Amino acid sequence: MVEPVALVALAIDAVVGWPAGLYRRIGHPVGLFARIIDRCERRWNRPDTPPGMRRALGVLTVVLLLMVAAGGGLLLQTALGELHLGWIGVALLAWPALAQRSLYDHVVPVAQALERSDLTAAREAVGAIVGRDTAALDRHGVARAAIESLAESFCDGIAAPLFWLLVGGLPGIWAYKAINTADSMIGHREERWRAFGWAAARLDDALNLAPARIAALLLCLGGGGGWRILWRDARKHASPNAGWTEAAMAGALGLRLAGPIAYDGVVHHKDWIGSGRADATAQDLRQALAIYRRACLMLWIIAAVFAVLGGSIAP
């Protein structure tokens, strides 16, 4: 049996997540990426700069991020090997890039607030995990928003980082986190970011192509169905990847997700994904969390199989 780097990283994340006390003291590693992106965006993404130049400067921002994330990951992985800390050190440094516990801990309060009919608290809790307007959401809208975020973040926060850890070790997982952070900050279609964030958005799409489809399959397996909706509706989302996990979850739960969504007071008329009920409930959200737990368990099994049959991630 070779070194179980991914399995140990998943276990640490499941047990402790990223503790609030640790976050208060040192923040989170993605904060470094966010600072680099913010500084580049403020300096290089000026309205008076031609779009072509802004796109080129956005590409340069991505290159700088990859140098820090992948280059730093490679240096650390090599150093750990030379210090004979090997796979244990790699697992410890990979752990913060996973978000099993954090995602679960952020979604559960939404379900709890809905179960006690506290719509104000539910809106506040879901507002911490989604970018849409939440002040006018009814209880069904809150539940749908939480379920959609859970489904999409299963890929971005767990399946995709794990995939790139298995493929590329520390350089792989932290390069993914850097690009995913860039996409969330600047990979938007609004005029301000369209040119500058083009490279981040396109690279994030590419890095999520395989993980999103794997994640969707796991959600269908975890939910015991949803295959028909997955194949039919996965491409209805504006993102080439997010629709896969949302369609899988919608099919598994028998719900309609997505649909019209408001951002900054503007309603965007998006296609519905799924053909079931639109009136999602706290019970549906609890069922989505159960599917999520089972899908995470299947990722653990994949990591264990890789440890038995695959190659070592550590040097």
TrEMBL record:
GO biological process: cobalamin biosynthetic process
GO MF terms held by the record: ABC-type vitamin B12 transporter activity; ligase activity; threonine-phosphate decarboxylase activity
The protein's annotated pathway: Cofactor biosynthesis; adenosylcobalamin biosynthesis
Domain of life according to the entry: Bacteria
Similarity comment text for this entry: Belongs to the CobD/CbiB family.
Location of this chain's protein in the cell: Cell membrane
Species per Swiss-Prot/TrEMBL record: Novosphingobium fluoreni
Mode of membrane association: Multi-pass membrane protein
Keywords from the named record: Cell membrane, Cobalamin biosynthesis, Ligase, Membrane, Transmembrane, Transmembrane helix
Spans traversing the lipid bilayer: 56-76, 295-314
Name of protein: Cobalamin biosynthesis protein CobD
Pfam families the record matches: CobD_Cbib (PF03186)
Summary of the function given for this chain in its UniProt record: Converts cobyric acid to cobinamide by the addition of aminopropanol on the F carboxylic group.
Keyword Cytoplasm listed: no
Listed GO CC annotations: plasma membrane
